[in-house]
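Need tokens for this chain, all 320 residues.
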Amino acid sequence: MSKIRILLAVLFLPFAWTPANAETIGYSEAIDLFATGCGADIAKFCKTANLGGGRIQQCLNSNQASVSAGCKATSRDLQALITKRDAARAAVLRVCDNDIRRMCAGIQVGDGNLMECFYKAKSNMSAQCRQTVEDAGFEVRLAPSQSTSQVKLDPNELVSSLQGVDAAASSGITAAGLRQLVAAGMADPSRRERANRAPLTERLNNLAQFTIAIQFDFGSARIRPDSFKAVGLMADALNHPYLLGYRFIIVGHTDAVGSRETNLKLSQQRAEAVREALINPFHIDATRLEAVGFGEEQLLNRSKPDAAENRRVQLINIGK
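Here are the structure tokens for all 320 residues:
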């Protein structure tokens, strides 16, 4: 089943990534190695290409004759990891069918509960099933690097922060509804002053979520290579068995530099850029993700509207 998402998490390794140990790392570390290995080539040939939609890979491919050998190797390794992960995840239900029936009988496929059960019982799986799970990255540890640019992200709480969805708190929250809320806030004369502007809503703060800083080119929705790892970390979290079946809204925020209208448009474009990158290259199911821009309407540091910490991305769990 192609939509089954097995745990793909980040493992800190004291050695370089090669195909021999590729199965031990997650998307976050893999994309970070790609960004490092291809950084100079991206800056030279693909400085306007964004991560989402496979555009950087397409750009590098179109410049194959000039791209460095190191970048070519790193790019091949990343593609090999993604292909191997996809194949293993698609095969898990077939290869592990007997193990799942034995350990998780009666649990329905499709809402994530099956893989959560299986994950908890993985120590008793057969050898063939265990190999498929290993190929899918199911057993790597979640340990994000402290160098990842973060606003609020604890390695020990990454997945748990997205769990525990409060049905009452998330009830009725939709991307369309949030956009209407932002439009109303923009039209409200009482919100003209930026300093100490009241939040549009407190409901978002009560939802299962995490907040991360992603660096974009100035005035642009292009994700900078030094933030590829941050996006990969989001992909690793969304692939965790405990979060299967849940839907998420990516909310983009800016600081208050520039006009409100420009900031709103830019935040929407940036949220969409993150969503597009999670879909491709990381293959998160598009139906699980929506993007909403808040512009400067929900500042994190209300007393300092221009502060850098106001530029952030929220990943919010809105339920199944």
